[in-house]
Amino acid sequence: MSSATTSYGWEWEGLLRAWQELDVPEGWRAEITEGGVTMTPPPGNGRNRIAHLVHRALGRAVADDRDILQTLGIAIRGASRLYQPDLVVVPDRELSARPDNVPVPAKRAELVVEIVSQGNARTDRVEKLWAYAQAPVPLYLLIDRYAEPKPSVTLFSDPVDGHYRRFEQVAFGEEIRLPPPFDLTLETAGF
């Protein structure tokens, strides 16, 4: 089986076409995951609040030629995946270079942020971790409200050969440092 074929035998182009043609209800997300095209309901208030706090902090650190976006489709063709992260930072030229409903290659993302909810914990912790490293996305920030023994924030970095070689994890309430180009200390007390 080629890398562009999923476990269900669907070719990447077919999955992408199906994703593009979906009539997704307002606030919902459609992603191409390990199981095919999946739908996620709108996030709750807690997740929205965390996304807002991270977005605001990033806004102070991101250069003017970068965009901080929610619900942007990013594609990992070689892994037959397409995700809509809670937040993603990409050069603004990536959006102007393609028509609406055409995903940005994930390798163009500089940072991806996922906020775990109970229903998507495995996807964010395992599947997306693997896929973002495959892309490779240089920085993956996983905000896990359901981590045991306590909620945590993990920054994965330095993707090599399909896995992240480095990670830093802090508990909610502690600070985590995002390296250049962000050069930002992210406060997590409000999470």
From TrEMBL:
Gene3D superfamilies: tt1808, chain A. Residues 21-186 form the Putative restriction endonuclease domain. Keywords: Endonuclease, Hydrolase, Nuclease. InterPro entries: Nuclease_put_TT1808, Restrct_endonuc-II-like, Uma2. Coiled coil: none annotated. GO terms for molecular function: endonuclease activity. The keyword RNA-binding does not apply. It comes from the Bacteria. PANTHER family: SLL1072 PROTEIN, SLR1083 PROTEIN. This is Uma2 family endonuclease.
